[in-house]
Amino acid sequence: MTDLWTDLLACVDLREQEGGPGLRYTGPNQRLPYHRLFGGQLLAQFVQAASLACPGKTVKSLHALFPRAGKTDEPVSYQVERHHEGGTFAKVTVVARQTSGVVATASVSLHAFEEGLDRQTDVKVPEVPTDEHRIGLDLIPWETRSVRSLDTPGAEPAEFDLWMRTPSVDPQLAPALTAYATDLTLIGTALRPLEGVTQNDAGTAFTSAVTSHTVWFHRPFRTDDWLLLRQHSPLLAHGRCFGRGDILTRDGSLVASFAQEALLRFRS
User: Fold this and answer.
1) Rounded-to-10 torsion of CA 113, 261, 228, 90
2) Is the pLDDT of residue 2 over 60?
3) Can you tell me whether residue 14 is helix, strand or coil?
4) pLDDT by residue (tens digit) across 223-248?
5) How far is it, in rounded angstroms, from Cα 34 to Cα 14?
6) Distance between CA atoms of 186 and 127, rounded to whole angstroms?
């Protein structure tokens, strides 16, 4: 049985497909005990498809929509349409399809690295939690730590700080791997203020599904050093929840941000 880390690396190694209009890529699906394609896989493959279509540039923002659940037993085909490609910026649309139809779409902006003024608001970043705060997140195949828990049934603030560090890996994969990780814990963060309900109650107390997800990349970075995903959910209303977060290095450098809206429908 292939380990989850090797499995994920194989998923982001997209191959170009022959035939048809535009640029087309495909890659294998993760082998997970999950009833549908994990949205993080689609986000990671969107990043890779856009990057392959525009060599010399890196993804600076990605906005994805998920109109229907993907099937785990069928590869996803990614079709890229270039809307603009200049010397510095590029804009593309990526459509993810299976035989059932479109499972996700993404609008992606890319940027060639350039020097310039670099400043940000000072951010206080705590020390990385000790090894006793290591936690297991089933879909993330690398080390994660947190001093909080998404599985606490008591009412807590809708905030969650997650530290993560991958094995040694090519830094060019950092945007794809990070996009993958941002899809996992925002719904659980939105649930934290609710007494007696946690993310483990999915399918019984509530139904959830991500409907849209956006990631912005601000600076080059690595994932094989510690990153802090600092996230919160300011709103849960009308059958939906909304959450957002920042990704920071140990020295407080803001390298990425993300936001997500999801269906969150409780059973009466």
Assistant:
1) -10
2) no
3) coil
4) 999 999 999 999 999 999 999 999 99
5) 22
6) 22
Cβ(46)–Cβ(107) below 8 Å: no
- The DSSP-derived string for 18-74 is PSSSSEEEEEPPP--S-SS--HHHHHHHHHHHHHHHSTT-EEEEEEEE--SPPPTTS
- Mean pLDDT confidence for 18-40: 84
- Per DSSP (E only), the strands in 187-226 are 206-217
Structure tokens at 92: 């593309």
pTM here is 0.94
- Residue 87 contacts by C-beta under 8 Å, 6 or more apart in sequence? 112
Number of continuous H segments (helices) and E segments (strands) in the chain: 4, 13
SS3 100: coil
Which of these, 25, 29, 115, 104, lies nearest to 67 by C-alpha position?
104
* Segment 96-106 mean pLDDT: 96
HSE-CB for 137 with a 13 A CA cutoff: 25
By the 8 A CB rule, do 91 and 53 touch?
Answer: no
For residue 202, the model assigns a pLDDT of: 84
Q: Residue 268: what pLDDT? A: 73
Beta bridge partners of 32: none
Mean pLDDT along residues 100-122: 94
pLDDT, tens only, 170-215: 999 999 999 999 999 999 999 999 999 988 888 899 999 999 999 9
258: helix, strand or coil = strand
Residues 181, 164 contacting (CB under 8 angstroms): yes
Q: Which helix (H) or strand (E) holds 178?
A: helix 174-181
CA 18 to CA 14: how far, in whole Å? 13
